[in-house]
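Dear colleagues,

As part of the handover before I leave the project, I'm documenting each prediction I ran so the next person doesn't have to rerun anything. This entry is a single chain, and its sequence is reproduced below.
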Amino acid sequence: MSTLDQNEAIVTPMDEAAGPADTETVGKISIGQYLSDHIRTYGMLIALIVIMVFFTYMTDGTLMRPVNLTNLFLQNSYIIIMAVGMLLVIVAGHIDLSVGSVVGFIGGLSALLIVQWDWPVPLAVLVCLLTGLAIGAAQGYWVAYWKIPSFIVTLAGMLVFAGLTIWLLDGQSIGPFPRNFQLLSTGFVPDPFPFVAEALGLRRFNTLAFLIGLVLSVAIVALAIRARRRHAAFGTEDEPFSFFIGRNVLVVAGIMYVAWLLATFRGLPNVLITMGILIVIYTFLTNATTLGRRIYAIGGNEKAAKLSGIRTDRLTFLTFANMGMLSALAGLVFAARLNSATPGAGRGFELDVIAAVFIGGASMSGGVGTVVGAVVGAFIMGVMNNGMSILGIGIDWQQVIKGLVLLAAVIFDVYNKQKVA
């Protein structure tokens, strides 16, 4: 086996669940022990469920009403889009503080191209995405090849692009955008099967949304069964069967409930489809590709990864370029949602994105974290923001509570590391 193959064999995105189970204890482990051993994997998901139940009760069900649920997806779409890219940056052992400013700059650029210069929307969107890619690549160049700390490089980028946004917009808001651009954020996927709802006597029911939820549920269960059989074949399955059944029942119930709520309102938001595609792509990238395993290897031990033949500088460069492109996409979505570009757009977004990734289980030292975890972290922040706003809690206490939640997540990460050690 080559040195590179050895590295690929020992580095995985799920360091927190490292190590095959003892074949003598497979199938005998209790649910409590299994949860304790996989607390990083399930802890934040359980926290999200608890928070949602709490705010649903406190708001008399307002949190989970179809209109508010749809609004929750729209409000947090750009944070989730950036959290997916930030995960790779943090897993590789770096940070990007410039994402909020890039969101504002790209929003301003899109307004300039579309509103003032009357460019076609598809061409303007392409130029904006390429611009974001170039911004991320420029910052990644200094971090990867000049070894300048990412904190310094991206802090400079945050200041530079905040200033350029003000210069680009001349300190004023520009808008409105044409309708086809607004569809990036506020549009909904039309239902191609309206006759189904009519035949069933249902009013305002989006059959497509419900069918997609059903297909997604079947796919998740099928993949879970396949993974369990594969682990059992290698003697590494340690998940109790009752827990496996319960987990998948809860997942399917949750997906179908959300699908039903969306179907009874306006269906699937366009941005939810965008988020879903990104989550699938980046989950596959991190879990099932050599590129993904090498990014985790960099965060786990960059020197060892380099000695194993991994081009650490090139992968670091790519993670920042990718972050720039996703920041640009988030900037377009945010501008479409506001229907204008403003000089202050994106301010503070970097804090929400970084907090979402850490709350979702990523490690401060790199090498640990999952795409699903980052998305869960983003939803925890989003549900808390939405729930506290419905309850009338002021922005001052909202910031205090979010800060304490972030601190608790980091303490939780440190505690788990010390317990394992």
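The CA atoms of residues 175 and 391 lie 32 Å apart. The longest helix spans residues 207-233.

All the best with the project,
I.
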